[in-house]
C-alpha cells in the first residue's frame, strides 16, 4: 500500500481537507458581507463588492487569514461572529475514518493550516479534531502564510525533517506548489473541499475526493 510503504509523515490542511469548507465559504462570502451591509447601511451587492475587494488586496498573505485584521478592516467582531453558524462546522467525507487508519499505521499526523488560532479553537471544540493528530502548526505561529517559502522552512525545522518521506494534502493548488518546492515528496489535492459546490480540477497534481482512494491498488500520487 502506497501510504504504508512510502510515507512516514502525513501533513494535512484543515479547512477543505479534513473539514468541510462550506462553513468558511458561507461565513466569509455570504455572512460577513451581510453583516457589513447591516452595520454600514449598505445594499448587499455594494457590501459584497467592497468586502471582496478587501479580500483580494491581501489574498495569499497572512492578513488574509487573520481575524484581527478583518475585525479592524471591516469594523466587525470576527471572533464573536464566527460562533453564529458554528453548526455548519463538519468533517469532510471520510476524514475521521482516515485519521483513525493513519493512527493504526503509526504515521505521524500534523495539521498545517492558515487558520487563525481563534478559528482553530472553535473548530476543535465542535469536532475534537486535535485529539486525532500529533501536532497542529498554524501560519499565525510562524508569522508567514503557507504560500511562503519561509513557512515551509519553519515547518522543516519544527519537525526536524526534510519532508522527503512526507505527503501533504490540501485543497489549494497554489499551496501544493509551495509544498512541492519545499521538498515534500508527495502532494495531493482535494477536488471537492466544499460539499455544497461542484468539484474542482487541478492542472499539476493528482486529486482525490475521498481519502479511501489512497487505499485503492491503482492509486498514484
Which spans have pLDDT < 50 for at least 5 consecutive residues?
none
The pLDDT mean sits at 96
Helix content: 40-55%
Q: Helix tally?
A: 10
- Which class do the helix and strand fractions yield? alpha/beta
Largest sheet: spatial strand order: 3-2-1-4-5-6
CATH superfamily label of the largest domain: HAD superfamily/HAD-like
How would a crystallographer describe the biggest sheet?
Answer: 6 strands, parallel
Give the strand content: 5-15%
**For the terminal residues, how far apart are their CA atoms?**
12 Å
CATH 2nd-level architecture of the largest domain:
3-Layer(aba) Sandwich
Could you say what the CATH topology of the largest domain is called?
Rossmann fold
CATH class of the largest domain: Alpha Beta
* Whole-angstrom Rg: 18 Å
Shape: globular
Q: How many structural domains are formed by the residues?
A: 2
Number of strands: 6
Task: Name the helix and strand elements from N-terminus to C-terminus, one letter apiece.
Answer: HEHHHHHEHEHHEHEE
In short:
By secondary structure, the protein is of the alpha/beta class. It contains ten helices and six strands.
Describe the structure.
The chain has 221 residues and is of the alpha/beta class. It has two domains: 2-21 and 91-215, HAD superfamily/HAD-like (Rossmann fold), CATH 3.40.50.1000; 23-87, no CATH class. Helices cover 43% and strands 12% of the residues. It has ten helices and six strands; from the N terminus they run αβαααααβαβααβαββ. It has helices spanning 2-6, 22-40, 44-58, 67-74, 78-81, 95-104, 117-127, 139-142, 149-159, 173-181, and strands at residues 9-12, 108-113, 135-138, 166-170, 186-190, 207-208. A six-stranded parallel β-sheet has the order 3-2-1-4-5-6, with helices on both faces. Helix 2 (22-40) crosses helix 3 (44-58). The chain is globular, with a radius of gyration of 18 Å. The model has no long low-confidence stretch (mean pLDDT 96).
Amino acid at each position: 500500500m502506497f501510504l504504508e510503504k512510502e510515507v512516514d509523515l502525513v501533513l494535512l490542511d484543515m479547512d477543505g481537507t479534513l473539514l468541510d469548507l462550506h462553513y468558511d465559504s458561507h461565513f466569509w462570502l455570504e455572512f460577513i458581507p451581510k453583516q457589513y451591509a447591516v452595520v454600514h447601511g449598505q445594499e448587499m451587492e455594494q457590501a459584497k463588492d467592497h468586502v471582496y475587494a478587501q479580500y483580494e488586496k491581501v489574498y495569499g498573505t497572512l492578513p488574509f487569514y487573520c481575524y484581527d485584521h478583518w475585525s479592524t478592516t471591516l469594523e466587525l467582531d470576527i471572533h464573536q461572529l464566527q460562533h453564529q453558524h458554528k453548526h455548519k462546522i463538519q468533517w469532510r467525507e471520510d476524514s475521521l475514518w482516515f485519521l483513525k487508519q493513519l493512527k493504526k499505521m503509526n504515521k505521524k499526523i500534523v495539521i498545517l493550516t492558515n487558520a487563525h488560532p481563534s478559528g482553530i479553537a472553535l473548530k476543535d471544540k465542535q469536532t475534537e479534531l486535535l485529539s486525532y493528530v500529533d501536532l497542529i502548526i498554524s501560519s499565525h505561529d510562524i508569522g508567514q502564510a503557507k504560500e511562503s517559502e519561509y513557512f515551509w522552512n519553519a515547518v522543516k525545522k519544527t519537525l526536524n525533517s526534510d519532508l522527503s518521506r512526507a505527503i501533504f494534502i490540501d485543497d489549494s493548488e497554489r499551496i501544493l506548489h509551495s509544498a512541492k518546492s519545499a521538498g515534500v515528496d508527495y502532494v495531493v489535492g482535494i477536488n471537492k473541499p466544499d460539499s455544497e459546490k461542484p468539484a474542482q480540477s487541478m492542472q499539476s497534481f493528482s486529486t482525490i475526493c475521498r481519502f479511501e482512494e489512497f487505499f485503492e491498488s491503482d492509486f498514484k500520487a
